[in-house]
From TrEMBL:
Swiss-Prot/TrEMBL catalytic activity: uridine(32) in tRNA + S-adenosyl-L-methionine = 2'-O-methyluridine(32) in tRNA + S-adenosyl-L-homocysteine + H(+); cytidine(32) in tRNA + S-adenosyl-L-methionine = 2'-O-methylcytidine(32) in tRNA + S-adenosyl-L-homocysteine + H(+)
Keyword Transferase: yes
Listed name of the protein: tRNA (cytidine/uridine-2'-O-)-methyltransferase TrmJ
InterPro entries assigned to the protein according to its UniProt record, in alphabetical order: Alpha/beta_knot_MTases, RNA_MeTrfase_TrmJ/LasT, SpoU_MeTrfase, tRNA_m1G_MTases_N
Family classification: Belongs to the class IV-like SAM-binding methyltransferase superfamily. RNA methyltransferase TrmH family.
Domain tRNA/rRNA methyltransferase SpoU type: 18-168
Record Pfam families: SpoU_methylase
Quaternary context: Homodimer.
Species: Xanthobacter flavus
Length: 286
């Protein structure tokens, strides 16, 4: 798929809760997290003491076009500083910390973040290091714990994946679950007269081809065929396509070539006739 679904002609969705990455080890993961943010309408990134320094070329490569998020990212020396203006923060962790804090899933966190931000509060989702996650002290700086129903024996998620899951739930909460596009409008449903005409066409073609080998079974076979098409809810366009398919099978390759040649000959005759008339009219006018 060209562009993997990107479309620069459409407006860029921005906003959402702050995404805070605490001491990310690799620029690759920062870039991948920024890409996930861009996918789901999150645009505000804060980075706490990145291990490979900042800015980072690898981050830009892995952002895959989400450069504006990296360009506007803010750098902080520690989590306390990154949370200085935040009213409510969710600490993401896969481990039980023995703290008297609410533990909620990404969907509930997204819904709460949405309502708090609508009330004017600044909200942050805090993600820890790739290898060790958030330290317990850092979790204690946050108001609630966000975790996911992962495999207890293998609970470590890639940083960007964790951001993507949280971002997906945020996007659903923000949009009310609306999908970005819907199926195209269908052609109007065929009325019974059109449907019966197709049945006549199909059954005649099948009869001619010798499909109904047993006269006794032909009526029940016809009923089964009609019921198949009734269940499909065919549109007028569907019937036009089916008529064309049956006609092509009736004619075969030689018949289609002959009809094409006949149509071309008629078109050429009309063109020649039109030219002669035009010449004559020109002569009369002169």
């Amino acid at each position: 798929m060209p562009g993997s679904g990107t479309d620069s002609t459409k407006p860029w969705t921005a906003g959402g809760p702050l995404i805070i990455l605490v001491e990310p080890q690799l620029g690759d993961n920062i870039g991948s997290a920024a890409r996930a943010m861009g996918n789901f309408g999150l645009s505000r990134l804060r980075i706490v003491n990145p291990r490979q320094g900042w800015p980072n070329d690898r981050a830009r490569t892995f952002a895959a076009g989400a450069d504006r998020i990296l360009d506007e990212a803010q750098l902080f020396p520690d989590l306390r500083a990154a949370l200085h203006d935040v009213k409510f923060a969710f600490a993401t962790t896969a481990r039980e910390r023995g703290m008297a804090k609410r533990v909620i899933g990404a969907d509930e966190a997204a819904a709460e973040a949405h309502s708090r931000m609508a009330a004017g509060e600044e909200v942050a989702l805090v993600f820890g290091r790739e290898r060790t996650g958030l330290y317990t002290e850092e979790v204690s700086l946050c108001d609630a714990i966000l975790t996911l129903p992962v495999n207890p024996a293998f609970a470590s998620l890639n940083l960007a994946t964790c951001v993507a899951v949280a971002g997906y739930e945020w996007s659903k909460a923000e949009s009310g679950g609306a999908l970005p596009f819907a199926p195209p409008d269908r052609s109007p449903l065929a009325d019974k007269g059109d449907l019966f005409a197709f049945f006549d066409h199909l059954e005649t073609a099948l009869q001619t081809s010798g499909f109904f080998r047993s006269p006794e079974k032909a009526p029940s076979t016809i009923r089964n065929l009609r019921n198949i098409f009734h269940r499909l809810g065919l549109t007028r366009q569907d019937l036009a396509t089916l008529h064309g398919a049956v006609t092509a099978l009736e004619e075969g390759r030689e018949g289609r070539e002959a009809r094409k040649a006949e149509n071309n000959a008629r078109a050429a005759a009309r063109k020649t006739g039109g030219g002669s008339v035009g010449s004559g009219e020109g002569g009369d006018a002169g």
